[in-house]
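Usage

Read records sequentially. Each one opens with the input sequence:
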Amino acid sequence: MAKSDKLEFSIEQNIVYPKHGVGNIIDVQVQDISGMTIELYVIRFEKERMTLRVPTDKAVGVGMRCISDVDTMEKAFTTLKGKARVKRTMWSRRAQEYESKINSGSVILLAEVVRDLFRSGDQSEQSYSERQIFEAAISRLAREVAAVEDICEKEALLKLETVLTPTPTPTPEIAA
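and closes with the structure output:
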């Protein structure tokens, strides 16, 4: 079987895989598996030091997508600047919702998790599990920002922290 003429993604393209975040397609292979010939995207996730093979005909169905465009990233930043919306439900239920948003593949839902779990210096401490979920979300968001803006992940993290940290409003000086 020859490689198909119409592939959704191409070699060297950065993509987002819902459960793993930003990866890079390093190859398209054809393999015989149980007597069937299957065409596969070979995706490398540097952060996790992991390689994933996804059948080309199932890629879109499992939620694999191109990295966000500038307009979508702008919406994500607008979401980050919004007011945190923390439901008054049990932590276990909220944690499940956050995890499903992180693994959804949506950069907007990812921004919601980061916004809702962000704590500035003057806010109360986070539990260990809150911190873990926040770290997973902001790391994944930073990798996509880095890929979209062609910057390193550290720069992307700094940019996100700048957006999340409100700038103090200057107090007017009173003339004596």
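Summary fields computed downstream for this record:
- The radius of gyration is 20 Å.
- The first helix runs from residue 70 to 81.
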